[in-house]
Amino acid sequence: MPDLLPAPRLHPDLTLHHVELTVGSLGRSLDFYREVLGLTVLAAGDGAARLGVGGRTLLALRELPGAAPAPRSSPGLYHFALLVPTRADLGRFVRHAGGLGVRLGQSDHLVSEAFYLQDPDGHGIEVYRDRPRGEWRWVGGEVRMAGDPIDLPGLLLEAGPPAPWTGLPDGTVMGHVHLRVADLGAAEAFYAGTLGFDVVSRWPGALFVSVGGYHHHLGLNTWQSLGGEAAPGGSAHLERVWLHLPDAEALDALAGRLRLRRVSFTEPSHAGGTLEVRDPFGTRLAFTA
């Protein structure tokens, strides 16, 4: 009897876990992430550190002393996005960042409200809150998103009276990661056709994919990196994106799809281990169960 083909899509309960970045000065980066975002250092030593909220790792840093800033024209990280539990939480972050004089970009995406900044190495960061799923609008299998201005007075009013900043709240998670890619066709073939994400939105020069009906777990764009080359070795860069699947069966199904399509990957060394694969542009994705 012939072998059954692996399940065609990724498991709908996939979640993002954390990202790994290289930085030019670990001390400078730790100061930034503690002061501006209020992340907690969970572990540090030998030129590396893990940071997070409530004991949950959101960011892993590795020092490359004197590394040049992350290039904006190479495939890799566009931004990682930290999802806070409530609109009031987002308002408190914005008030805190404003008090520090941090310059923020902002956008109402209809499904979410988002603010943007960069760390000292040029890595992009988004802090956002989701609107309730019942308010998202789906048309023809794609979720409606936009780039409208945020009602900033209303957001700050919802944050309540000014109070001392205590950092991003418990319940903050890695909501999504947005990547630069060199070719959208190749990106769609890999992320949707091979890995099994669903395409949920298309913009000029960008593609958004997810599972389980989320507005996006990954963004993929060529806005600055169309046909771009890999980042120089001496620059700060994204090392790895970590994603969690709910069980070993889902991880095995992914491995089966990769074998079927003759895509090279690192096999999990044990049950519950890590499957690592590179996208067509060199970005490393690590899947665990």
List keywords for this structure.
single chain; alpha+beta; 2,3-Dihydroxybiphenyl 1,2-Dioxygenase, domain 1; 289 residues; 20% helix; globular; 8-stranded mixed beta sheet; 5 helices
Description:
- The protein has helices at residues 26-37, 87-100, 152-158, 184-194, 248-260, and strands at residues 15-23, 40-45, 48-53, 56-63, 76-83, 105-108, 112-118, 124-130, 138-139, 142-143, 173-180, 198-203, 206-210, 218-221, 238-244, 274-278, 284-288.
- It is an alpha+beta fold and 289 residues long.
- It has one domain (15-288): 2,3-Dihydroxybiphenyl 1,2-Dioxygenase, domain 1, CATH 3.10.180.10.
- The strands form 3 sheets. Strands 6-7-8-5-11-14-13-12 form an 8-stranded mixed sheet, with helices on one face. It has a 7-stranded mixed sheet with strand order 2-3-4-1-15-17-16, with helices on one face. Strands 9-10 form a two-stranded antiparallel sheet.
- The chain is globular and about 55 Å long.
- Keywords: Dioxygenase, Metal-binding, Oxidoreductase, Plasmid.
